[in-house]
Amino acid sequence: xxxxxxxxxxxxxxxxxxxxxxxxxxxxxxxxxxxxxxxxxxxxxxxxxxxxxxxxxxxxxxxxxxxxxxxxxxxxxxxxxxxxxxxxxxxxxxxxxxxxxxxxxxxxxxxxxxxxxxxxxxxxxxxxxxxxxxxxxxxxxxxxxxxxxxxxxxxxxxxxxxxxxxxxxxxxxxxxxxxxxxxxxxxxxxxxxxxxxxxxxxxxxxxxxxxxxxxxxxxxxxxxxxxxxxxxxxxxxxxxxxxxxxxxxxxxxxxxxxxxxxxxxxxxxxxxxxxxxxxxxxxxxxxxxxx
Amino acid sequence: xxxxxxxxxxxxxxxxxxxxxxxxxxxxxxxxxxxxxxxxxxxxxxxxxxxxxxxxxxxxxxxxxxxxxxxxxxxxxxxxxxxxxxxxxxxxxxxxxxxxxxxxxxxxxxxxxxxxxxxxxxxxxxxxxxxxxxxxxxxxxxxxxxxxxxxxxxxxxxxxxxxxxxxxxxxxxxxxxxxxxxxxxxxxxxxxxxxxxxxxxxxxxxxxxxxxxxxxxxxxxxxxxxxxxxxxxxxxxxxxxxxxxxxxxxxxxxxxxxxxxxxxxxxxxxxxxxxxxxxxxxxxxxxxxxxxxxxxxxxx
Lengths: 291, 300
Fold this sequence. Notes:
The complex is a heterodimer of chains A (291) and B (300).
Chain A: H1 6-14, H2 20-52, H3 71-79, H4 82-113, H5 119-128, H6 134-148, H7 155-159, H8 166-176, H9 181-189, H10 194-205, H11 207-223, H12 226-231, H13 240-251, H14 255-275, H15 277-281
Helix pairs in contact in A: 2-14, 3-14, 4-8, 4-11, 4-13, 9-10, 13-14
Chain B: H1 2-39, E1 42-45, E2 50-53, H2 57-63, H3 66-77, H4 81-96, H5 103-115, H6 118-129, H7 135-142, H8 159-184, H9 188-196, H10 201-212, H11 214-229, H12 233-239, H13 249-258, H14 267-298
């Protein structure tokens, strides 16, 4: 990729290289792209507008400056469990990322590097769980986590069942396989134990895979809805999606409150995406299972 | 002998590294899966944690349950989104594949719905589709397109289509990235050769690129159909299950198992329905893999 992209040159050449018809075609392409962007981003603009437009007819236009206010954000943050849900969502997302990355990187190492008894069987067993839909074991999982482990209304109970990411193990294993073996051997000759070889040699070398896994885990965790919905009954433990969905009824008379709560819920993840977009759009995750 | 000893040593080490993953997988996936199959043959009481064996009764019950039939049918109807997603996301990928100025902005813009929490997506589109004060009806009536408000989310014939539209809108960017990666992995030499041979832009796409995209198309088909059959969040947030003609299988499972509003929770029946869903998904994945293999080897 980059400025001297061969595909782009080919594309230009093939289209006839800068004559009038070509310029029109390019203009049409940009026009279509802008229209699609409006369709993709328009709803967010509407959400923002609703969140700052105070009561009255939201469709009366032009509106006075006085009809706009950030007040709904303050009200929602203080009077509804959005502030605590925000904190809970951050805790859950960070905990999930750390757990998933550590567990997957650890598991991927021997699968990529060691010759050991049961390797292929273990790997197949791990992969086969990809086929199982969450709903199949949702109910027994619920019974197990809440009754046996007593983790209802606990953020740990939200995170723990999703601690082993099969996609993550697969992704990082692929990456480990590309690391030259000399580097491990050098560390072993220097007297490093196996755990240190993994921690000081392998893990730092697979940053792109770890970063990709981390960003996808974070977004999936931030959006996770069904599981937190059923195990968190205590308002103080709600995550953002649960708080928003559950409070929809209570909010209904003030559209701006619900809109402001929604903006609060998605702002962090959108900023996060915009900052780290190359990890999302890199295409390394082809086949990543959507959360 | 020494080598064998090494292998044993590495076996021990390997399972040490694998222990956290296997422990989590066994505790939170494999064990509950077994329990799920077992529960589906029981009438389970969550309070006393005791069950009464029913044999196949829960499965028989599905046959005579009209709500289950509606939910199952709707889950299959939801598959309509799959071809639409394939065509539109491939078109988007073709649109933003060349690295022309500003292209990264557009790619990012199309991807933003993907990272947005589904609950918020549902709320946002409800503001747009709402019958009385939604943006869409307001615009349509102001432009004189319609005379009376369209009940996008309350009419039982419309609501599923409305929710599908939201699913498509949210997913397009994700599948677009899959197709961009596939398009960019087509060898430049191949495209060059086709151009030298006199292929026009349209022929280049239909005759050269499209056949090579078959694996990506199948992949997108598999992923999007599996998630279509499992649709839940959208239905929950946009309809709240109030439109009984528009419930889906996972929504019905959730309701049967967890929604105290509609009566006693019935884990056994919900588990039996989950098993049916699992079998459908396995059959679907197998069918897709079969198609992928045929496409991969038969397409040249």
